[in-house]
């Protein structure tokens, strides 16, 4: 049974979340280790942002912020700290469960899929329809990060590559992003890597543009 960390300051919301998770085969827990974390931002003691920061120091478990805070700055900060998703309250139970299932499936899958792309990390190849392209390790790790998160900051991508023993600075990241864009264009996925000015990058297929 997959363990889901639930940190929620509102007791009624907390009990509702735990009931929902148990009814769908998950085990809600109040502390790590866990397979996924659901975090409110406004917590007694340290904030959800700090919890996310601590989790990211030693684990790659998916993190979802579930909060009533609506500012774009909070959302961007959450993604910058390593969150995988950001859901505003009031949430729809079926949508939350779908997001949880998607992230848990990606975490355990050797093949990543998003926006019609399939990335095989073991073979360093990306496929789109019937076309495929070979990637370098840098390009594959950048694409993997973009496929698993709604938004990746430049700093996060650099840190991600560094922890995978692939030296990269901001200029190297820029070069690799451009090469990756060109390879995606060659297999029919042009324009899939979007620049978020002053922040980083996100993956977004033409169908959702």
Characterization of the model:
- The chain has 209 residues and is of the alpha/beta class.
- It has seven helices and twelve strands.
Tell me the structural class: alpha/beta
**What's the mean pLDDT score?**
87
For the terminal residues, how far apart are their CA atoms? Answer: 37 Å
Q: What is the C-alpha radius of gyration, as a whole number of Å?
A: 18 Å
The number of helices is 7
**Unreliable spans:** none
Give the helices and strands as they follow along the chain.
EHEEHEHEHEEEEHEHHEE
Topology of this protein?
Layout (H helix, E strand, L loop, with lengths): L2 E5 L3 H13 L3 E3 L6 E4 L8 H11 L4 E5 L4 H9 L4 E4 L4 H16 L2 E4 L2 E4 L4 E4 L2 E4 L2 H12 L3 E2 H10 L6 H17 L6 E4 L3 E4 L6
Parallel strand pairs: 1-2, 1-3, 3-4, 4-5
Antiparallel strand pairs: 6-7, 7-8, 8-9, 10-12, 11-12
Helix pairs in contact: 5-7
Give structural attributes.
single chain; 209 residues; alpha/beta; globular
